[in-house]
Amino acid sequence: MTEKKRPPKTKPTQLYLLLGVIIVLLLAALLLFPGKTGSRKQELSEGRDDSPSQQEAPPDSETAPVAVQNPAEDLKGGKPLPGQKVPAKPSRGELAIIIDDVGYSLKELRPLLAFPGPITFAILPGVTYSKEALKEILQAGKEAILHQPMEAIGGNDPGPGAIYTWMDTAAVREQLDKNLKELRGVKGINNHMGSKVTSDPRVMEVVLEDLKEKNLMFIDSRTTAETVSRGIAQRLHIPYQERSVFLDNTQEREEILQAFQEGLQKAEKNGRAIMIGHVWCHELAEILLEVYPQALEEGFEFLSVSDLIDDTAE
Fold first, then answer.
1. Domain 93-311, CATH
2. Each residue's pLDDT tens digit, 28-59
3. Which of 1, 83, 110, 270 has the fewest CB atoms within 10 Å, i.e. the most exposed one?
4. Transmembrane residues, as ranges (predicted)?
């Protein structure tokens, strides 16, 4: 019987070489072509700059939170944010404060310029610091009016630039125009003294007609109960109001505080009140700084006279 030939056995050395080549190729493949899944996981874990998941989204203008202003700040002159609706706070009354006799001293004026709310200063014409006082008042963002000197019944000297009942129409107009030109930028006038002039229909007609032509207001300080200003102002349809309270008939602290409370009561009863003090009252600036925040808290609103004043044509 013929014996079949067996295939030659592979030598062990060749087999080991073949296995080595295969292993080397596998390792090379792993190094040159890493798995996509593992690579992507690594990218996400390291956080590439251009990865959409890591970019900040812009704020949504419709849903982004908006800081809300304090409504109390709006009452003091702050403006609401666009689109913000601030609920109206009911006012117990409107208040305007006028400081008379400004112009003789800047030192007396400056503490009152620090008052945080609206306030109006009445400047005497033709005295030492009339123009300088006006400049500082306007720079402080406050309101100024002419404190027009007028003849008094008792014969006391009203000071420079006064209007007298013996003046004819031309003289009254000339004097008033001169004073207003000296203090350009005032919103109107009130009377300094003037019990004789404000009770004289002829002279007051001239004064108020001149103010109407200039679109200026008149505030009657009511130095006499016999004043005829209101009736003439109503007939001429000019902005007009009158004093409610003098704050400093005396310079005693307790009496000033009492007068201020009287002003609050009149504002609550009548809807508004004008309180007049004087620049030379040394207690006044400190007292006003004390009572202002409490009056706001109680629901009263402070305005400049021009914002408070009635247009009697309405």
1. 3.20.20.370
2. 666 665 554 444 444 333 333 333 333 333 33
3. 1
4. 15-33
